[in-house]
Amino acid sequence: MVGSPDHKLDDEGLRDPVVRFQSYLHGGTSSLLSALPTFIVFPVYKTVFRQQLHNTPVHTAVAQLYKEGPLKLYRGVVPPLLMRTLNGTLLFGLQDTLLHQLTVSSHYPMPTSAMPALAGFGAGIVEAMVLTPLERVQNVLQNGQNDHRLPTLKSVLMRLKSQRLALGYYRAFLPITARNALGSSLYFGLKDPVCTVVAGQGLSPMISSFISGTLTSMAISLTLYPLSVLVANMQAQVGAEGKGVIACWRMLWTSRQRSVALLYRGGSLVILRSCITWGITTAIYDRQQKNSG
């Protein structure tokens, strides 16, 4: 791998740009290939969103979607498909780039084991800056209350454009940044150690990567789930009074009757989604990296 002591400096300088580009390419490819499961499980994701927004049990959320009909079932599917591809490209590519910079130019004593997590934290911040507008559009489209006022993607884009960034495209930017930065840091900090432990049980590298991605993403999703609920509630409405993060959190906590169980409503479906998407993404990415290494 580039940056290891086994490589000469000149050879490293020649190969670095190629290897860095491969990380972006492999991240985008793995996420693109996992877009099909994302499309298949989108009704599950939309069910979770309705639970997050309206604090309803799963059967009520499913009944809402059934009543709206199959034509509206996939309303809002385009942004998450784009986000999956961009997410993988940015997340894996930027993390690898930042990790390389930390490895070769760090002037401060830092444990090697902490570097992947720190690089992931930085990648998550950039990811939030790029993807927050897409998540905002996605949440507006998925809210059935907006169907009549904002019936098309174009109408949503125009409405958000007419508002200032903090209330329009970048609504809930701070909790998204916190969620993505912490999530990415945990993912890259835990992924390889968990994979090593799983591989030690005699499983193949592909299966080990899949299980590692699944277990890691499950833990992250459940830990940061309250932030996702907060983001969904902040972004679903358009034109409402722009309350701050703390005020929105207080309203959300009160609406959930100050109950952690109600706040985590829909969390079990997040596990299913994470198992399918991040497990596949991690396995494909690790395989591509190994084959090109």
UniProtKB/TrEMBL annotation:
The chain crosses the membrane at residues 24-45, 168-190, 210-232. It comes from the Eukaryota. PROSITE patterns: SOLCAR. The keyword Ion transport does not apply. It is a multi-pass membrane protein. GO terms for cellular component: mitochondrial inner membrane. Pfam families: Mito_carr. It is found in: Mitochondrion inner membrane. Keywords: Membrane, Mitochondrion, Mitochondrion inner membrane, Repeat, Transmembrane, Transmembrane helix, Transport. GO terms for molecular function: NAD transmembrane transporter activity. Solcar repeats lie at residues 22-101, 111-197, 204-291. Belongs to the mitochondrial carrier (TC 2.A.29) family. This is Solute carrier family 25 member 53-like. It comes from Xyrichtys novacula.
